[in-house]
Amino acid sequence: MKHSTFFWFFLPTGLAMLLFIAFPLVSVVLQSVHTPHEAVLVTVENCGPFGCKKETTIDQDATRTLRAAEPLGRFVGLDIYFDRGHLALAELKDAWAKADSWPQFFTIIGNLPFYRAMAFTLTFTFTVTPVLIIFGLAIALGVNALSERIKALVIFVSLLPMIVTPLIGSLILFWMIDSRGILGNAIQWLAADPDLSLKASTGLTWVMLIVYGVWHAAPFAFVVFYAGLQTLPMDQIESARIDGASRWQQVRYVIIPHLMPLITFVALIQLMDNFRVFEPIVGFNAAAHATSLSWIIFNDLGGETRQLSAAATSSMLTIFGVAVLLSPVLWRTWQDFKGKS
Amino acid sequence: MAVAFMANAQHLVYREDVLKKIGVQPPKTYEDMLAAAQKIRAAGIMQNPVGGAYAAGWNLAQEFNNMFLGYGGSHFKDGSAQPNVNSPAGVKALGMMKALSEYMNPDFLTHDSNATNAEFRAGNVAVMNMWGSRAATLVDADGVSDAVKNGMNIAGPMTVGGGGIPASTLWWDGWTVAKNVSDAEAEATFVALMNAIDPSIIKDEEIRKQAVWLIDGYTPTDAARGVFAAAQANTIPYPMLPYMGLLHTALGNELSDFMQGKETAEHALADVEAAYIAAAKEKGFL
Q1: pLDDT tens for residues A225-252?
Q2: Size of interface A-B (CB pairs under 8 A)
Q3: Which of B246, B259, B284 shows the shortest C-beta gap to A35?
Q4: How crowded is the C-beta side of B270, counted as CA atoms within 13 Å?
Q5: Cα B258 versus chain centre, distance
Q6: Closest Cα in chain B, distance from residue A101 (Å)
Q7: Which residues in B lie closer than 8 A to residue A309 (C-beta atoms)?
Q8: Residues of B in Cβ contact (< 8 Å) with A35
Q9: Nearest CA in chain B to A302
Q10: Number of Cβ within a 10 Å radius of residue A178
C-alpha cells in the first residue's frame, strides 16, 4: 500500500483512537500524579429532624477558590503510586525488616490491598488462560468431527457461555453454588459435610472464580480454533495418515503447529482479559476472598467519597501490568517479524 | 438545606413463635440475642438463627458502626479527621460481631440486606438487626410460609455491653434543590418535590406503610414502631462527617479478614486505620 493511501485509510481510525483512547489516557496519567486540595473544614451548627449538633463540614466557598486557582489539584508526583493502597513501599520495607522468613514476609504483604489483588489476579490469569485454551481446542476438535446435521446446534450451545452477560452468568452460578442452591447442596452431600460452604472458604471461592473464568472464555477460544480448523491442509493430514500417524499424533504434529499463530492470538487476548478480571468478583460477592486491580478501581470510585487519584493510579498500574504480561509474546512476534523481513 | 421526608434506623426483627417456643422475651441487648440464638440452636429449631447483613463492603462496615457506637466508641479523635476505631470499643464491637456470626449462615460475608431478608422469609432466621424501611413489606412475598408471616414481629434497636445508647444509627432522607440550576428549573423542581411529599399522599394505606414518613398528619403504622423506638432511645444519627465515607469504605474492605478468623481484632482495626489514612491523605483531609 502506498503511504498516502494508508494515511487516508487510517486517518478516521487514528482520530478516533486519539480522541477516545490517547486523550483519556493522558488525563488518567495527570490525575494519578495530582490529588485534591487540602480540604478546608469548618464547624457549623447542623439541625436535623432529630435535633441540632455541632458538626464539621467542608467549607465549599473556600475550597472552590482553591480549586479555581489550581484546577488540577496538588501535584504529588508518584506519592499515590507508593502509598499503602498501591505499591506500599514504606509498608514493604517495614515487612522486609520485620519478617524472619519468606512465608512471613508474604503473609505481611498479602495483607496490603495491591499485593492481595495481584496474588489473586495472577493466579487467575495463569490458570484460566492455559486451561481455556486446552478446553477451547478440545471443543473445536470435537465439534469439527461431528456430522454436518447437528454441527450448527452444537456450535450454538457451545457459544452460550460467551453470549450470556458476564454479570448474569456469574449470578446464576452464584445462586446455584449457594449452600442452599442445587450445586452447593450437591457438594455438601458428596463431601458428607452439611456445613461445607463454597462462599465461606477463600480456596474454594478462588476455584469457583477460576471455573467460572474458564466456562465463560472457553467459547471464544473454541470459535477461533474452529475457524482455524477449516483451513487445515488436508494433504498434510492425509500424508500423516498414510505414514500411520494416530489421531493424537495428527493433532500434536500437524494440527497444533498449524493453529499456533491462533493459539498465540488467543493467549494474548485472554492474558489481557483475565488480568482485568472484574465481573465475577462483583457477581459472586467475592470481595472478602478475592480482589483484583479492576475491583480496586471500582471500589475507589464506588464509595461515598470518590477517590479519583487512587483509581487513576490503579488504572496506570493495570496498564503497566498488562504491558509486562504481554512483553514476552510481543518480543517474540517482533523477533519473528525481523527474521522474516 | 434539605427538606426531610422520611426516617430510618436498624432495629430488631424477630420470630415471636420461635422465641415463645424457647420461652424467651424479645432481646433488648445483643447479649440476650446471643443467648436466645444458643437456645434456638440447642433446641434444634434452627441451625443458624441469627441474621445479619454482614456482606463484605458497605454492609459489614455499617454493622461495625452500629456495634462500635453501642459500645460508646467515636469514629474520630475529637474535632479532627484522625481515626479512632482501633480502640477498646472497636475491639469489643468486633468481638461481639464475631460471636454473632457463629450463629449465622456460613456465607454471611456475602449476605447483604436483601439476602438476609430472603433468609428470614425462608424461615431460616429467628432474630436479626434489620432496616426499619424493610419491615412493612418484609414478608409480603410469594412463597412465605404462614409460620413466618404470623410469627414476624419487630421491636426497638438493641443495646450492647451494658451501654445506654442503642447499637444502631438514625437516618433521615430529604431532598434539596441544586444551586447551579436556572431559577425556572429550581422552581419546577421545588414544586414537583413539594407535590411528591404532599400530606394527602399518606391517606393511602399502601403508601402510609412504605416508610416512616416525616410528613404532617402521619401516624406511625405498626411497622414503624422500631424506628420510633430507635429515635426515642436517643440512637445516634449516622456521623455525617466529610471524611466518614472514606472510613466506611476502609472498614468494609479490611474487616472481612477478622471475620474469617485470619487476623486479630487489633490487627484488622490497625489495617482499617492505615487504609483510611492513605485515603484521607489523598483527599486532603489529613
Answers
A1: 999 999 998 898 899 999 999 989 999 9
A2: 119
A3: B284
A4: 8
A5: 20
A6: 19
A7: 282
A8: 281-284
A9: B249
A10: 19
User: Distance (Å) from the C-alpha of residue B141 to the closest C-alpha of chain A?
Assistant: 19
Sequence-distant (6+) residues with CB within 8 A of B127 are: B12, B13, B14, B15, B19, B27, B33, B36, B37, B49, B50, B51
Q: Which amino acid is at A105?
A: F
pLDDT band at residue A59 under the 50/70/90 scheme: confident
At B109-137, the pLDDT tens digits run 999 999 999 999 999 999 999 999 888 88
- Prediction ipTM score: 0.88
Phi/psi of residue A64, each to 5°? -65, -40
The CA distance from A287 to A298, in Å, is 11
Residue that is written with C-alpha cell 418484609 in the block: B138
Residue with cell 446435521: A149
Which residues lie below 8 Å from residue B240, measured CB to CB, with a gap of 6+?
Answer: A46, A55
Residue type, position A153, single letter: L
pLDDT over threshold 90, residue A39: no
For A22, residues 6+ apart whose C-beta sits below 8 A from its C-beta are none
CB-based contacts of A35: which residues, under 8 Å, 6+ apart? Answer: A73, A74, A76, A79, A80, A309, B281, B282, B283, B284
Asked if A307 lies within 8 A of B112 by C-beta distance, the reply is no
> In the predicted model, what is the mean pLDDT of chain A?
90
CB contact under 8 A, B279 and A199: no
Give start and end residues of each alpha helix (H) in chain A. Answer: 3-17, 23-32, 60-69, 79-82, 89-98, 102-109, 113-144, 148-163, 166-176, 182-191, 202-229, 234-242, 247-250, 256-275, 279-283, 293-302, 308-340
Beta bridge partners of A71: none
The 10s digit of each residue's pLDDT in A269-296 is: 999 999 999 999 999 999 999 999 999 9
**How far away is chain B from the Cα of A188, in angstroms, using its nearest Cα?**
13
